[in-house]
Amino acid sequence: MTQQVNHLIGGEYCQGSGDQQIAVTNPANNQPIATLNCATEAEVNQAVASAVEAQKAWREVPVSERARVMLRYQQLLKDHHDELATILAKETGKTFADAKGDVWRGIEVAEQAANIGSMMMGETVENVARGIDTYSYTQPLGVCAGITPFNFPAMIPLWMFPLACACGNGFVLKPSEQDPMTPMRLAELFEEAGAPKGLLNVVHGTKEAVDQILHHPEIKAISFVGSVPVGQYIYKTGTENLKRVQAFAGAKNHMVIMPDADKATVINQLVGSSVGAAGQRCMAISVAVFVGNTKEWIPELKQAMAKVRPGLWDDEEAGYGPLINPQSKARVLDIIASGKEEGANCLLDGSDFTVQGYESGNWVGPTLFSGVTKEMRLYKEEIFGPVLCTMEVDTLSEAIELVNASPFGNGTSIFTNSGAAARKYQHEIEVGQVGINVPIPVPLPFFSFTGWKNSFYGDLHAYGKQAIRFYTETKTITARWPESGIVEGQNLTIALK
Ligand code: NAD
């Protein structure tokens, strides 16, 4: 018997009556663990209507009370950290430790949402003209929606609905159909924390449900995280329907290794940031750019990568788990084969890796290529697997030129002991998130997640101050309260007098 994944609509859990059924599978053996019925058009409409209704009352709830709901929520998430990580690990295949990290990076955003009073503050200027003051408020938009990917089923939904709701909005979440059980548990805990029924609704499905969200007149803003083609489609369609859209998309992240960097540190950090989570992170390092004689470190990198062994989620020795589905595995194997055909040196090939007793799982072992060039498919496409490409250049300037020519701009890092090299890199690089001796520079929630170029479409990024701007409108008030109660004379000009 597999579990049924419910929708959450208006505070009620329902199986849904859509004809299309989707199996949620264990990526370690592709056996079904749950089933969901895609939401019908009527169910999506009902979810939006519930959010509209709940938001009317919620926007009147004092900001300190909304903050307290978020405070309770972050505590509940911490209390259920292991339970959430177990659900997450089972449906994604991530190792338990990494699943805990996924949940934790979301809890940090819920914590930030408890700070909403300070974050929503507007601006004031007294005496903008004689006896006239101007001040601004941030007010909720109404109902916002989130469409999330498979690779962080806790963190990414938590980038969205706690902050949107803390701002006073209602929310409709359409999580990835591949791992919907973690987001459902997050939603249950949100209600347990005191969020009113109907404020957060969760509908399951694929393109049809997303299309309805994109066209629904009551949805004012859409947060999306996923692949480039879908991100472009969502940004274009959402904005065409006059909605506010932030769309976070694919990536290809480079690490630049300078000759004055510490070799052991570089090798350790490269291994973890390239094959951790089976490379299924939008901030994974997929290209290592060796500057000068650091290319001599590649054989040691190979030895270190070869020691990483994928395994089951509850195997404490496993470095990472399987890929999410057989299509992902086929795509990664195809790109590895293309690399060999195009003339790259495959130093370590994980194509045939498997785990005993789980041969039908989506396993790919750590894979390392050297001699990769810009023209190869290996370099041009986002692989989203445990595959690291190495490239060699002579100078830092050449490395910067290479990275800046990439159409992606999510994250990058430089490993060096030179302040001057680090300063040059951070200043000149055209990438939105830069690590200096930090391989995966995902900012904490008081900053924002600031991908650039084809890794992000929109203006305002996820979490931090930018998210508050994204989920609110600014209302600016200009007020005069003359002591006499009378404003004398006429003013026929535009100037404030
Ligand atoms: P995906 O684009 O396939 O799916 C994302 C969401 O869009 C899912 O909810 C899915 O149901 C929906 N969707 C899929 N096809 C659709 C279509 N044709 N029309 C409308 N909606 C559709 O992405 P994924 O495979 O779940 O996630 C992996 C991708 O996400 C990678 O490219 C990765 O780089 C990216 N990602 C980016 C970031 C970031 O912050 N930039 C973070 C995490 C993941």
UniProtKB/TrEMBL annotation:
InterPro entries: Ald_DH/histidinol_DH, Ald_DH_C, Ald_DH_CS_CYS, Ald_DH_N, Aldehyde_DH_dom, MeMal-semiAld_DH. Its EC number is 1.2.1.27. Belongs to the aldehyde dehydrogenase family. It is an enzyme of class 1 (oxidoreductase). GO terms for molecular function: methylmalonate-semialdehyde dehydrogenase (acylating, NAD) activity. One of its GO terms (biological process) is L-valine catabolic process. Residues 17-477 form the Aldehyde dehydrogenase domain. This is methylmalonate-semialdehyde dehydrogenase (CoA acylating). It comes from the Bacteria. The keyword NAD applies. Keywords: NAD, Oxidoreductase. The keyword Hydrolase does not apply. It comes from Ferrimonas aestuarii.
